[in-house]
């Protein structure tokens, strides 16, 4: 245990180091730019240091103590040359580092996106969507910053430190010792202090976020707050939270005030002390005035470099964490290879059979969600799955789509075990019309084309017509180009369903899975949707997850599920004739609630 903790505490464990070298692989194609950028950065940093030295030397020249005999008036040219060179180096560095980081990180981002898109379904359940998005956005952003700025800044500060200390030691060794014994110490103390203050600032932000959540919640559930007349309770909750924000803010302000007092007093105290010692040396003739001038400026640079290195190290550690998280996903096993879709696939006949299938979700292995399921569907038949909520209807269809692998039994299509069928071929032969239809944010055309991206305009129009959608689409001024809004919010529920049906029609699947919408539409819209569904089901094997029994009267076979088991099966009439059967009970219950 102790040994393990020690390993975890190490700044760069072997695994982490491995991730770092892997991320550098993304930089390798742009290595030339990377090296060039680093050289430009080194040159511009050196020039900055030379600049400070030349400024001091100019003061020496003005004081009649020039080292190189260059008259003061010529310093203008020297500065000009240095400035132009510095500008050119900085520009070249910024551009070349951007080429490296933008391209390298875009490659990494694409790899990550492709990996996420091809991961098996259960992976998404174990992660929150926000977490995965954050990998593509925040983590890669962090790495991008590292390659465009942090690494370069790190190098710059090291150069500043090395050159700075070397020049100081050469200019005035004794004063350098005095300076090195005071300024870096103050800077280090200030950094630790600064970190503590950042912690309080974070606390303040968190508390503020909590208060904002209360406000947001109230706004989102305005109707509920009003109907329960809970305005006063909410007001209390909000003011309590805001009060805490104020308390933390004041504590934060006090520490900040103290921090600035500390920094100004000690840091400036240190600088003045060095300045004073230097002035004494100038007075006694041990140091030139211009050198003291350079000395103080170098001291400032060194102090800045030490502080900079501290925060850059924190950023680099953060970037290593980000690298780790990104590679954790990249190392997952994907379920399909990402390749250009084939135009044609072997088409199934559509005979589906579940033989003795049992299943438990990987996240809850102790609960058997489906037990010994036996279902046989002939090609072109329609069956319905009915049963209480949580009975296992959706799970059954997820297994057919092979979103999960089952534990026992065999699911086969046209006599072949689905586990032996190529996943893309399997899913290409199916279409799912889900319960909650959420469209992509583009146009109606794009949403229909999602069923088969290479379909012609004529096929799209045909699909829309057969889905009873063409009339309402044509009524929109932009027709098929109408933008449906985020998740399809700008079209009605019934229209969304018909767009989804058109999409499924365009796909022309051998097997159709239909999760009936629970929220009811008005009678007219319902009829239009039902007619569209009838067209869609024609000539295919269809599995309907039915919530309303009225829609399953004409199906070939109904399976009643209860707690993961099939408790009854038969046609509507057969099942209704069993007075004490589960289906009969469900039907009576629905009659009562309708
Ligand atoms: N991803 C999951 N991980 C773990 N358990 C799950 C998961 N999805 C569903 N379950 C559980 O499996 C059981 C069957 O759920 P399923 O969604 O198949 O029921 P359903 O009959 O389709 O219900 P509904 O009519 O409400 O959609 C439920 O007990 C549910 O809690």
Automatic annotation (TrEMBL):
All residue ranges annotated as the ABC transmembrane type-1 domain in the record: 35-318
Domain of life: Bacteria
Keyword Membrane: yes
GO molecular function: ABC-type oligopeptide transporter activity; ATP binding; ATP hydrolysis activity
CDD domains reported in the protein's UniProt record: ABC_6TM_bac_exporter_ABCB8_10_like (cd18576)
Transmembrane portions of the chain: 30-55, 75-92, 154-172, 178-197, 258-280, 292-312
GO biological process: oligopeptide export from mitochondrion
GO CC field: plasma membrane
Keywords: ATP-binding, Membrane, Nucleotide-binding, Transmembrane, Transmembrane helix, Transport
Membrane protein topology class: Multi-pass membrane protein
Subcellular location as annotated: Cell membrane
Domain ABC transporter stretches: 352-588
PANTHER family (alphabetical): ATP-BINDING CASSETTE SUB-FAMILY B MEMBER 10, MITOCHONDRIAL, ATP-DEPENDENT PERMEASE MDL1, MITOCHONDRIAL
Family of the protein in this entry: Belongs to the ABC transporter superfamily. ABCB family. Multidrug resistance exporter (TC 3.A.1.201) subfamily.
Full protein name: ATP-binding cassette domain-containing protein
Provenance organism: Membranihabitans marinus
Organism taxonomic ancestry: Bacteria, Pseudomonadati, Bacteroidota, Saprospiria, Saprospirales
